[in-house]
Q: What sequence folds into this?
């Protein structure tokens, strides 16, 4: 067995089995890495149980949300509207509505028993849960594209192309503004 480990280590570019073990598992940082991994794992499991989405999907939602806030503020300033806290709370309200939609459908999917229909066992609430969080991802993506257009970002024509394909109203507003 030792020969197999040695062969595996050396054939994969390590100097020895010890070098492979240190590179793979970093035993010198186990005292802080293991508890941190345990905490992150616990948070991920609890989060997934409550909202029904993986923590990575949640992070993508957060990135899209904060990007929308940032680009929205920049676009408003560019348009001379400035920053108003009354408009800023719109984004937080939107995030709250999204969280309620996603979370409530996940809770329904878990706790409401589903009965077979024509012999097929379908959890309609589970389906709606996935529809909601995919819709939220798409809605945040669209909001970001709208803000990119408002900011005048072109990215070699990529942003206007996406905005045009999505048939966004903001594209027409930009065209009208440019033609004046």
A:
């Amino acid at each position: 067995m030792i020969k197999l480990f040695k062969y595996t280590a050396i054939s994969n570019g390590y100097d020895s089995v010890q070098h492979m073990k240190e590179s793979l598992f970093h035993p010198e940082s186990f005292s802080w890495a293991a508890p941190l991994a345990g905490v992150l794992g616990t948070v991920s499991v609890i989060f997934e149980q409550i909202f029904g989405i993986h923590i990575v999907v949640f992070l993508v939602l957060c990135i899209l949300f904060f990007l929308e806030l940032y680009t929205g503020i920049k676009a408003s300033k560019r348009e001379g509207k400035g920053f108003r806290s009354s408009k800023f709370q719109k984004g937080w309200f939107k995030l709250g509505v999204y969280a309620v939609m996603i979370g409530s459908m996940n809770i329904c999917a878990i706790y409401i028993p589903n009965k077979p229909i024509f012999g097929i066992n379908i959890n309609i609430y589970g389906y709606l849960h996935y529809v909601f969080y995919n819709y939220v991802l798409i809605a945040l993506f669209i909001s970001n594209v709208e803000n990119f257009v408002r900011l005048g970002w072109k990215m070699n024509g990529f942003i206007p192309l996406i905005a045009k394909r999505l048939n966004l109203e903001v594209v027409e507003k930009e065209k009208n503004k440019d033609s004046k």
User: Anything to note?
Assistant: The chain has two domains: 1-51, 52-179. The chain has a mean pLDDT of 83.
